[in-house]
Amino acid sequence: MASLPNVKKPCGDCPFRKDTLNGWLGAERMTEILDQQSFVCHKKNHLQCAGHMLMKGESNSFVRLAGRLNIKLDLSGKDLVFDSNDECIDHHSF
Q1: How far apart are CA 17 and CA 43, in angstroms?
Q2: In contact, 51 and 8? CB cutoff 8 Å
Q3: What are the C-alpha distances in Å from 68 to residues 35, 38, 60, 64, 78?
Q4: With contact defined as beta carbons under 8 Å apart, do 16 and 52 qualify?
């Protein structure tokens, strides 16, 4: 079966996780990241970030591509990431 280069679950210090360090990236940087069509994992530079895909869903271009190609991304950990952009940005605000 075909696959795409992506992380399957948010890593331990994924910036989209609810338990990440408060104020880590700041509101401006997190807003920039959330505005992106896709995001590469900060630990595994050649793989798409699971946290971004889980938060953004169909707004993430990688998720849309996988859907068009009928490729399952096998993402897990939705409960680990923020439920909204606003929550994520607030968490990263200083």
Answers
A1: 14
A2: no
A3: 22, 16, 13, 6, 22
A4: yes
Instruction: Supply 18's token pair.
Output: 């609810």
Q: How far apart are CA 58 and CA 45, in angstroms?
A: 22
pTM above 0.90, yes or no: yes
Map tokens 């994924």 to a residue. 14
Structure confidence at residue 1 (pLDDT): 63
Instruction: Provide the residue type at 50 as one letter.
Output: A
Q: What pLDDT does residue 94 have?
A: 77
Note the pLDDT tens digit of each residue in 28-51: 999 999 999 999 998 888 999 999
Cα dihedral 18, 21, 23, 25 sign: negative
Tally of helices (H runs) and strands (E runs) in the chain: 4, 0
Q: Which amino acid is at 66?
A: A
Residue 69 CA, chain-centre distance (Å), reads 20
